[in-house]
Amino acid sequence: MKYTVIVTPKKAILDPQGKAIKNVAQNYLGKTIDSIRVGKYFEIETDEPLETVEKLAKNILSNEVIEDYRVLKS
After folding, report:
1. pTM of the predicted model over 0.90
2. How many CB atoms lie within 10 A of CB 35?
3. What's the rounded Cα separation, in Å, for the pair 11 and 2?
4. Residue 70: its H or E element
5. For the chain, what percent of residues have pLDDT higher than 70?
6. Looking at residue 60, which CATH number applies to its domain?
7. Angle 35-69-61 from CA coordinates, rounded to 5°
8. How does residue 69 score in pLDDT terms, banded at 50, 70 and 90?
9. Residue 74 pLDDT
């Protein structure tokens, strides 16, 4: 089974990298962009169940204090 884990900063957390990319993109395009958030993307192939991958995402791949994560079956 293949899983995708997406980790992003929580909405309340400042994302300076996303803000910097947003400013460059707006200058490049000459258009307004409301928001860009930077995160992490993982592809995991395993025979383990979804619960195991969720445990991995919560405890190893993300910092639950400042990040949210989503696990998707691919």
Report:
1. no
2. 9
3. 28
4. strand 67-73
5. 100
6. 3.30.1280.10
7. 115
8. very high
9. 87
Confidence class for position 48, pLDDT limits 50, 70, 90: very high
User: What's the angle, vertex CA 32, arms to CA 29 and CA 33, rounded to 5?
Assistant: 95
First vs last Cα of the chain: how many Å apart?
8
| Residue 10 tokens, joined | 């929580």
Secondary structure of the chain as H, E, C letters: CEEEEEEEECCCCCCHHHHHHHHHHHHHHCCCCCCCCCCEEEEEECCCCHHHHHHHHHHHHCCCCCEEEEEEEC
Which domain does 24 fall in, by range?
Answer: 2-73
Domain count, the chain: 1
Q: How confident is the model at residue 9 (pLDDT cuts 50, 70, 90)?
A: very high
Q: What pLDDT was estimated at residue 33?
A: 97
Please give the structure tokens belonging to residue 19.
């803000």
